[in-house]
Design goal:
Distance between the termini: 17 Å
Order of helices and strands: HEHEHEHEHEEHEHEHEH
Largest sheet: 9 strands, parallel
CATH superfamily: Alanine racemase
CATH class: Alpha Beta
Number of strands: 9
CATH architecture: Alpha-Beta Barrel
CATH topology: TIM Barrel
Shape: globular
Radius of gyration: 18 Å
Structural class: alpha/beta
């Protein structure tokens, strides 16, 4: 029963992605669906993997380590693990050990620590997204980007930080990530997602650094995020249901 319901949920999400792409004149192949499995029962996560999902997202290192082991023991095949949550600099060593993508790079110091690890380990360039706080909400992490379009100071600080990160060895800077506010009407999130896209374009023009990917959109708002240019959406409840 769980396996069937999870597969149905995935099919519905993928259909919604396709519809949003159609409205935006985009291809669904350009959007990566990351199933956010944090704090979900393991049987639901395994059912999602068995239904064909490849990309799994976690917010906590300890939970991700446990899940990896158990999913592999259950016969899980090739998976791409995405770290979505904040990581203290002292725990950065776990990122290349457990994950293949990192969406929450929120300081130059953290970027430098990760760069040093990748280079010292002679590892391939590690894909990262810089997390920015578009809304200015105190509850959200990331580089301050609130009001960047109207503040030369905010934009200059962003430009300096991302410029430094873009030159670090061992990091494959993919783009930007943000979180929108939780609202009942997903249409209200559109300015946030459009703002991230405009910020990406401004940074690309100013730095001459390609930032092709936008990680934005969750269960409540991913169709709008796709319409505004998301290349990665992070969806949990719409796939797994409410957490127990």
């Amino acid at each position: 029963m769980i396996k069937t319901s999870i597969a149905d949920n995935i099919a519905e999400v993928q259909a919604n992605i396709a519809s949003a792409c159609d409205r935006a004149g985009r291809s669904p192949d350009d959007v990566t669906l990351v199933a956010v499995s944090k704090r979900q029962p393991l049987d639901r996560v395994i059912a999602a993997v068995q239904a064909g999902l490849v990309h799994l997202g976690e917010n906590r290192i300890d939970e991700a380590e446990m899940r990896r082991e158990r999913i592999m023991a259950a016969g899980g095949g090739y998976l791409v693990w995405h770290m979505l949550g904040r990581v203290e600099p002292r725990r950065v060593r776990y990122i290349p050990r457990l994950f293949q993508r990192f969406h929450a790079l929120d300081s130059v110091r953290l970027a430098e620590r990760l760069s040093d690890l990748i280079v010292a380990g002679d590892l391939p360039p590690f894909p990262v997204w810089v997390e920015v706080n578009i809304t200015g909400e105190a509850s959200k992490a990331g580089f301050d980007a609130h009001g960047w379009a109207h503040s030369a100071t905010v934009f200059a600080e962003l430009r300096t930080a991302i410029g430094r990160i873009s030159h670090l060895r061992g990091l494959d800077l993919r783009g930007l990530m943000t979180l929108a506010p939780y609202v009942a009407d997903m249409e209200q999130t559109r300015p946030v997602f459009a703002g991230l896209r405009h910020l990406r374009d401004a940074l690309t023009d100013s730095l001459g650094v390609p930032l092709p990917d936008l990680s934005m959109g969750m269960t409540n708002d991913y169709p709008v995020a796709i319409e505004e240019g998301a290349t990665t959406v992070r969806v949990g409840r719409a796939i797994f249901g409410e957490r127990d």
